Amino acid sequence: MNSEQEDPDQRRPQKAVGVEIRAASPSDAEGIALIANLPGFRAGTLRLPFQNIEETRRWLEKPSPTSISLVAVVAGQVVGNAGLRRHSGRQIHIGNLGMGVHDNFVGRGIGSALLAALIDTADNWLAIKRLELTVYVDNEPAIRLYEKFGFETEGRLKAFAFRNGEYVDAFTMARIRM
Fold this sequence. Notes:
Blueprint: E1 19-23, H1 29-36, H2 39-43, H3 53-61, E2 67-74, E3 77-86, E4 94-101, H4 110-124, E5 130-136, H5 140-148, E6 152-163, E7 166-176
Parallel strand pairs: 4-5
Antiparallel strand pairs: 1-2, 2-3, 3-4, 5-7, 6-7
């Protein structure tokens, strides 16, 4: 069987060397706020500029019982964060993902490590069947990463968000575990 015929889950990239993936805690607030204020990180999210450390700390101190928040740490520095929010009721089988990586650590496997941890949690601990996310159409590295992990584009959301003075489109992507 060649790599094009393999199950996408079997083609996952290897974990980044030297990165620790762990649950986010209130003590990570400063590191998360720092990376959230970086232009490249912010450009890929719905966050506004000037992320406040105390606001971030409050969010980390009162986590939702249906959410998981992770950080990626390299040499004691927070270099990425990611989250999984489970839906409820008749959509309890669905989880929504969001993630980002420090501008200076893009392309080093941090996103792959975070995404692999979220997918493992969804598949092996929460029995989530469908993972969803949105990604700006111009974020080609993120789109390639999601595709490597089996996500497929399901649609285009026109004028999805106002970013840097203009409206931008986003793709809605999903991975359905069979």
